Amino acid sequence: MIRFDELTHFTEYMYTYMISRCRGANNYPKRIKSSTNPGGVGHSWVKERFIDLGEPNQIHSITLETGEITTRTFIPSFVQDNLFLLQKDPDYIRRLDNLPEKERKALKYGDWDIFDGQFFTEFDRKIHVCSPFVIPKTWRIYRTRDYGLDMCSVHWIAMDWNMNIWIYKELYESDLIVSDAAKKINEMTDEDEHIVADYAPPDLWNRNRDTGKSTMDIFAEHGQYLTKADNNRITGWLAVHEWLKVFEDEQGQLTSKLHIFSNCKNLIRTLPALQHDEKNPNDVAIEPHELTHAPDDLRYFCIMWQNPMIKKQTLPKENYTPTELEDLGYRDTETPININVAKPVATRRRR
């Protein structure tokens, strides 16, 4: 058995090399266990290897490149769990509260999504990530994509009647030519998922000189009719910030308008890992490029739905058609009492 304390103080090579030393000519199980705090030289690889793996407190099976299957698990622990320490040193938590915000979140709350240079500092796994559930059939379904041969990233997004969005399914795969990507997307889309809009970046409309077809044309041949999204990066990232904004609900609980199902592992992994561009602090760094695909396709949705409504509007007392109310995020059963719902009436145009 091998034990590491403060694992993030080690490089990934040190750790993987020591795995090869865990051996013995006996029947005892070979185990490696580690404890650590967020931060340090090994923060990124430890986070990717254990925290981004999936739900905590569960054993996850991992297939290695050699075909061998191993298991990993992440068990969160907080200072409040250390009863012996709190009994002997009750002022320890107060000293943690005196630390700067990032260090305090890391050491007191075990927050792995906080690091220097992070672009989306408002991202909070406890608030923005949720367990999967069945999407109601009455919710609107959107799809958004970032396509390239290096990576095809697609997310399915449901919008409820209070303008909350729930990112509930993802395709994240490389080396897919356009027709294969289209087939995969169709296979992952259920028959009762009626896509309201399918957002994509403008470069998919560029035509190939040899065939005269664009990437958009090939997707259309497979029944996927794309909507060209605004590709302004600065405005787009500001829109993502707005959707990620944390606020208190009517019960005083912290929440957000954007929620990600825990099965969308790549978006959860890459969104909080984005860093500021050194030359333009309003933009994200494009390197490492692998981190940008899933956030980019989210950006295309967010920029087309800017300024999400945090609280229900109190609208003036007017006659609204059901369609107008639906566009404002209301159903008949959720219509405020100060709104009169009028049935559409036919009008005669004046000559």
Short description:
The chain contains twelve helices and 15 strands. The protein is an alpha/beta fold. Mean pLDDT is about 85; it is low at about 330-350.
Topology:
Blueprint: E1 2-5, H1 12-20, E2 32-35, H2 43-51, E3 60-63, E4 69-72, H3 83-88, H4 92-97, H5 101-109, H6 125-128, E5 129-130, E6 140-147, E7 152-159, E8 165-173, H7 178-188, E9 195-200, H8 215-221, E10 227-228, H9 233-244, E11 246-248, E12 254-256, E13 258-261, H10 265-270, H11 293-304, E14 319-320, H12 322-327, E15 340-341
Parallel strand pairs: 1-2, 5-13, 6-9, 8-13, 9-10, 14-15
Antiparallel strand pairs: 3-4, 6-7, 7-8, 11-12
Helix pairs in contact: 9-11
Keywords:
351 residues, alpha/beta, Nucleotidyltransferase, domain 5, 4 domains, 7-stranded mixed β-sheet, two-stranded parallel sheet, 12 helices, 15 strands, 28% helix, globular, disordered C terminus
Q: Portion of residues in helices? A: 25-40%
Number of extended strands: 15
Secondary structural class: alpha/beta
Characterize the largest beta sheet: strand count, sense, and whether it forms a barrel: 7 strands, mixed
**First-to-last CA distance:** 90 Å
Q: Secondary-structure element order, as H and E?
A: EHEHEEHHHHEEEEHEHEHEEEHHEHE
Low-confidence runs: 331-351
Count of helical stretches: 12
| Radius of gyration using CA atoms only | 24 Å
Total number of domains: 4
Identify the CATH architecture of the largest domain. Answer: 2-Layer Sandwich
How would you write the strand order of the largest sheet? 5-13-8-7-6-9-10
Proportion of residues in extended strands: 15-25%
Q: State the CATH topology of the largest domain.
A: Nucleotidyltransferase, domain 5
